[in-house]
Design brief:
With 128 residues, the chain is α+β, with helices and mostly antiparallel strands. The chain is 19% helix and 11% strand. The chain has a domain at 30-106: Alpha-Beta Plaits (2-Layer Sandwich). It has helices spanning 47-51, 75-84, 98-106, and strands at 34-37, 56-58, 65-67, 90-93. The strands form 2 sheets. The protein has a two-stranded antiparallel sheet. Strand 2 (56-58) and strand 3 form a beta hairpin. Bound molecules: iron/sulfur cluster (SF4). The site of iron/sulfur cluster (SF4) has 15 residues, from helix 1. Iron/sulfur cluster is lined by residues 37, 42-48, 65, 84-87, 89-90.
């Protein structure tokens, strides 16, 4: 059996500019929008995380839902998860907006949903 080594020099060395992510060989269609949770409104009910389990997780420190990956579940399943949200805080947004939205959330100093609101301690004036 002979192997034609010239084949190695015939393949393209640059990306085809026509590639757009929607080719069947890349696993199907690329979504044109990203899914994002507005954590400032999320009440941590976990419905979305129970439906689209590869997309949403409950962030352990804040107790609010967060998208951990964009390609974990089908669009239909994510849409179903969006439909379960009682406060409508899951949105489709342009991919380019994700960093800006994340930065806005980081600047809000959100409170942990699993903790009671912080109150000032009372001063004990009685001496024991
Ligand atoms: S369904 Fe909505 S409110 Fe409930 S955890 Fe998910 S994003 Fe938050």
């Amino acid at each position: 059996m002979t192997i034609d080594l010239s084949v190695a020099f015939q393949s393209k060395s640059t990306f085809d500019s026509e590639v757009n992510g929607k080719e069947p060989c890349l696993g199907g269609q690329l979504r044109e929008q990203a899914v994002w949770v507005d954590e400032s409104i999320c009440i941590g009910c976990r419905y979305c995380a129970h439906v689209a389990t590869n997309t949403f997780v409950i962030e352990p420190h804040l107790g609010r839902s967060r998208v951990i990956r964009q390609d974990g579940d089908s669009t239909q399943l994510i849409q179903e998860a969006i439909g379960t949200c009682p406060v409508n805080c899951i949105h489709w947004v342009p991919f380019e907006q994700l960093d800006e939205l994340r930065a806005q959330l980081d600047g809000m100093n959100l409170q942990d949903l699993g903790k009671l609101p912080q109150v000032s301690r009372r001063i004990n004036r009685q001496k024991s």
